[in-house]
Protein backbone atom coordinates (compact mmCIF):
# COMPACT_ATOMS: atom_id res chain seq x y z
CA UNK A 1 0.00 0.00 0.00
CA UNK A 2 1.40 3.39 -1.01
CA UNK A 3 0.96 6.27 1.42
CA UNK A 4 2.22 9.79 2.02
CA UNK A 5 4.50 10.04 5.04
CA UNK A 6 5.63 13.19 6.79
CA UNK A 7 8.92 12.84 8.63
CA UNK A 8 10.85 15.74 10.14
CA UNK A 9 8.77 18.23 8.16
CA UNK A 10 9.38 16.57 4.78
CA UNK A 11 6.94 14.54 2.72
CA UNK A 12 7.86 11.14 1.29
CA UNK A 13 6.10 8.30 -0.45
CA UNK A 14 6.02 5.16 1.67
CA UNK A 15 5.21 1.64 0.57
CA UNK A 16 4.11 -0.93 3.13
CA UNK A 17 3.12 -4.44 2.17
CA UNK A 18 2.56 -7.36 4.55
CA UNK A 19 4.83 -10.33 3.76
CA UNK A 20 5.50 -13.30 5.98
CA UNK A 21 6.31 -12.30 9.54
CA UNK A 22 7.23 -8.66 8.86
CA UNK A 23 6.12 -6.10 6.27
CA UNK A 24 8.03 -4.82 3.26
CA UNK A 25 8.79 -1.13 3.98
CA UNK A 26 10.23 1.40 1.51
CA UNK A 27 10.47 5.20 1.68
CA UNK A 28 11.06 7.02 -1.61
CA UNK A 29 12.92 10.33 -1.74
CA UNK A 30 13.70 12.49 -4.83
CA UNK A 31 16.91 10.67 -5.80
CA UNK A 32 16.50 7.24 -4.24
CA UNK A 33 15.00 5.16 -1.47
CA UNK A 34 15.57 3.58 1.91
CA UNK A 35 14.24 0.04 2.22
CA UNK A 36 14.03 -2.80 4.69
CA UNK A 37 15.97 -6.03 4.29
CA UNK A 38 13.41 -7.58 1.94
CA UNK A 39 14.93 -5.56 -0.90
CA UNK A 40 18.15 -6.95 -2.32
CA UNK A 41 21.20 -4.66 -2.30
CA UNK A 42 22.65 -6.73 -5.15
CA UNK A 43 19.59 -6.09 -7.33
CA UNK A 44 19.61 -2.38 -6.46
CA UNK A 45 23.30 -2.24 -7.51
CA UNK A 46 22.55 -4.06 -10.75
CA UNK A 47 19.76 -1.60 -11.59
CA UNK A 48 21.84 1.47 -10.67
CA UNK A 49 19.57 2.55 -7.82
CA UNK A 50 20.47 5.10 -5.17
CA UNK A 51 19.41 2.96 -2.22
CA UNK A 52 20.12 2.43 1.46
CA UNK A 53 18.94 -0.41 3.66
CA UNK A 54 17.83 -0.93 7.25
CA UNK A 55 17.01 -4.15 9.06
CA UNK A 56 14.95 -5.38 11.98
CA UNK A 57 12.06 -2.97 11.41
CA UNK A 58 8.38 -3.90 11.60
CA UNK A 59 6.65 -0.51 11.36
CA UNK A 60 7.26 3.10 10.35
CA UNK A 61 8.27 4.17 13.85
CA UNK A 62 11.05 1.56 13.97
CA UNK A 63 11.97 2.32 10.35
CA UNK A 64 12.56 6.01 10.99
CA UNK A 65 14.59 5.26 14.15
CA UNK A 66 16.80 2.70 12.41
CA UNK A 67 20.39 3.19 11.27
CA UNK A 68 21.61 2.47 7.74
CA UNK A 69 23.15 -1.02 7.51
CA UNK A 70 24.21 -1.01 3.84
CA UNK A 71 23.90 1.07 0.68
CA UNK A 72 24.61 1.06 -3.03
CA UNK A 73 27.56 2.64 -4.83
CA UNK A 74 25.32 5.50 -5.98
CA UNK A 75 24.16 6.16 -2.41
CA UNK A 76 27.82 6.22 -1.37
CA UNK A 77 28.38 8.94 -3.99
CA UNK A 78 25.77 11.06 -2.16
CA UNK A 79 27.61 10.62 1.15
CA UNK A 80 25.41 7.94 2.70
CA UNK A 81 27.29 5.81 5.21
CA UNK A 82 26.75 2.78 7.44
CA UNK A 83 25.37 3.79 10.85
CA UNK A 84 23.84 7.01 9.48
CA UNK A 85 20.30 7.85 10.54
CA UNK A 86 17.46 7.25 8.10
CA UNK A 87 16.67 10.95 8.49
CA UNK A 88 20.11 12.01 7.24
CA UNK A 89 20.10 9.47 4.40
CA UNK A 90 16.71 10.74 3.19
CA UNK A 91 17.91 14.35 3.45
CA UNK A 92 20.89 13.51 1.21
CA UNK A 93 18.57 11.76 -1.25
CA UNK A 94 16.29 14.81 -1.30
CA UNK A 95 18.96 17.35 -2.32
Features:
95 residues; alpha+beta; Hypothetical protein Ta1206 fold; six-stranded mixed β-sheet; 4 helices; 33% strand; globular
Mean pLDDT: 96
Portion of residues within helices: 25-40%
Q: SSE string, helix = H, strand = E?
A: EEEEHEHEHH
Strand order of the largest sheet: 1-2-3-4-5-6
Structural class based on helices, strands and sheet pairing: alpha+beta
User: How many E-type strands?
Assistant: 6
Report the portion of residues in β strands: 25-35%
User: What's the number of structural domains?
Assistant: 1
CATH architecture: 2-Layer Sandwich
CATH superfamily: Hypothetical protein YunC
Low-pLDDT regions? none
CATH topology: Hypothetical protein Ta1206 fold
> Terminal Cα separation, in Å?
26 Å
CATH top level label? Alpha Beta
If you had to describe this structure to a student in words, what would you say it looks like?
The structure is a single chain. The chain is of the alpha+beta class and 95 residues long. The protein has one domain (2-94): 2-Layer Sandwich (Hypothetical protein Ta1206 fold), CATH 3.30.1980.10. 28% of the residues lie in helices and 33% in strands. The protein has 4 helices and 6 strands. Strands 1-2-3-4-5-6 form a 6-stranded mixed sheet, with helices on both faces. A hairpin with a 2-residue loop joins β2 and β3 (22-28). It is globular and about 30 Å long. The mean pLDDT is 96.
Amino acid sequence: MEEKLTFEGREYVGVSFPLGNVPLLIVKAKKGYVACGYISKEAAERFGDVAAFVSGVKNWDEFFKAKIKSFTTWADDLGIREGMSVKKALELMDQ
